[in-house]
Write a structure and sequence with these properties.
alpha/beta; FAD/NAD(P)-binding domain; Tyrosyl-Transfer RNA Synthetase; six-stranded mixed beta sheet; globular
């Protein structure tokens, strides 16, 4: 439910209409306004003070973009992943490094003045984790000021962009969960801004700290607007972090194995410590009673239960303690990768995917790791720890033998023959391929059917997300109430 800060009647206030309302005049706000205007939209940029008052104008660093002759976005992407130490949003990073060079060139084309070499080429610097010179500066450390100036000049020339300075947006107008504009204080009077779309580009919350170099406007006003309009901003994870010690997270077996596998040593990303906490938030947000999972998730569920127990003991019974549901088939507790490593992982490239075509599945199965000592057909082979037999334990059924390998009655006969020698890996893999094809074909077919109905899929996801958001919001409200931080509910701030 939306909560308004000011008392107003939209019928009494002057009205400004626009296609898109952009609140904020930093790089994000003005670039958005520029792009929307080029797409034919009428845009109104509303700012609290003046257009030049933004975090962007104060930024002293440079802009990283693959503009050099010895550089390319792919290399920039790899450098970004290294610098991110496992925390990088890979999809977003790829977008940024791919579109970055053109963004800089667009700014140059529209009048931005970046530092240049004596021969007129861009002066590209190099900073930490970059393997090439790719940092663009303006007047040394005044890059932000120049970007802000250039964007303001573009906005001033664009007929579809209007600007409204000294306009303090007080509330977003929400109806049926959709934002239709905002109320604002302009020249001492309330103003009603009607918009088909609203963009919050208001910066961060740096000014809330006692010691900061952020400008006066960085007080989180946009976050407050969104919060009062009903957006869920605070995640349960942040509350739970106060209930878990670093030493406890370091003892989590799954976290320890991931750190070892990725050779992080002492340079451990925060995300690996926070992941068990965020997973607990995902589970408890929906008050889940049971969680189907693999064996490797047991420590995570145990961590979740500890958090629930701690929260309830401190704040009262609020959260539900879940139980893990493990596969009854022991082989399915934790499938190894096709390379024989203990964990199947997308990042390690050792998975078989449900969406893969038959030829890809066959290729992966035939390349699977087996007993390294089973060099000749006549040699005795080892079944324990052999990924091929682990997958057969997990997926093959008695009827598969009658259809694909009638020489044997069951898997036990195959194992016995392999162990005494005389049965080659290729024959076993061919059988496994037939089993996997039979198991995955119905799934693949069903997936392709839904791929032809993507608009329907999107609607299903939207409905599910809306329901999930409503449920999570209710849990979050319960948590705030238990913690006595529901300040704006029932006038609790005044009590």
């Amino acid at each position: 439910m939306e909560t308004y800060w000011t008392q107003f009647d939209t019928a009494d206030a002057p009205v400004i209409e626009t296609d898109i309302l952009v609140i904020g005049s930093g790089a994000a706000g003005l670039q958005t306004a520029w792009s929307l205007a080029e797409a034919g939209r009428e845009v109104l940029v509303a700012v609290r003070d003046e257009l030049q008052d933004s975090n962007t104008a104060k930024a002293q660093g440079g802009i990283a973009a693959a503009l050099g002759k010895d550089d390319d976005p792919a290399l920039h992407y790899q450098d970004t992943l290294v610098a991110g130490a496992g925390l990088t949003d890979e999809k977003m990073a790829k977008i940024v490094v791919t579109e970055g060079p053109q963004a800089v060139l667009d700014l140059l084309h529209h009048g931005a003045q970046f530092d240049r070499n004596p021969d007129g080429t861009l002066a590209l610097g190099r900073e930490g984790c970059h393997s090439r010179n790719r940092i663009v500066h303006a007047n040394g450390d005044s890059t932000g000021a120049e970007v802000s100036r250039a964007l303001r000049a573009i906005a001033g020339r664009e007929k579809r962009i209007r600007t409204l300075e000294h306009c303090y947006v007080t509330d977003l107008l929400v109806r049926d969960g959709i934002c239709w504009g905002a109320m604002a204080l302009h020249q001492g009077k309330m103003l009603h801004i009607r918009a088909r779309g609203t963009v919050l580009a208001t910066g961060g919350v740096g000014r809330l700290f006692a010691h900061t170099t952020n400008p006066e406007g960085a007080v989180g006003s946009g976050l407050a607007l969104a919060y009062r309009a009903g957006a869920e901003l605070m995640e349960l994870s942040f509350y739970y972090m106060n209930l878990v010690t670093v030493s406890r997270l370091q003892r989590n077996p799954t976290v320890k194995s991931e750190i070892q596998m990725r050779n992080f040593e002492t340079s451990i990303p925060v995300g690996f410590f926070c992941y068990p906490i965020s997973q607990a938030a995902d589970i408890t947000a929906f008050k889940a009673t049971t969680v189907p999972a693999g064996e490797d998730q047991k420590p995570m569920i145990e961590q979740c239960c500890e958090i629930v127990h701690k929260f309830n003991s401190v704040y009262g019974d609020t959260l539900v303690e879940p139980e893990i549901v493990l596969p009854q088939n022991a082989a399915c507790l934790r499938l190894p990768g096709i390379d024989g490593k203990a964990k199947m992982s997308k990042s390690l490239g050792n998975c078989i995917y449900l969406s893969e075509e038959p030829e890809d599945i066959k290729k992966k199965v035939m390349s699977m790791y087996t007993d390294p000592n089973h060099l000749r057909v006549q040699d005795p082979g080892q079944v324990e720890g052999n990924p091929v037999f682990i997958y057969l334990d997990a997926f093959c059924r008695p009827e598969h033998f009658a259809e694909f390998w009638p020489e044997y009655q069951n898997l036990d006969e195959v194992k016995a023959h392999y162990q005494r020698g005389g049965l080659g890996d290729v024959k076993v893999k061919k059988f496994l391929n037939s089993v996997m094809q039979a198991e995955l074909e119905p799934i693949r077919t069903r997936r392709k059917e839904w791929e032809q109905r993507l608009p329907e899929v999107v609607e299903i996801l939207k409905e599910g997300s809306a329901y999930a958001e409503k449920t999570a919001a209710a849990t979050l409200a319960d948590v705030r109430r238990s913690m006595r931080i529901d300040y704006f509910d029932n006038d609790n701030l005044l009590k």
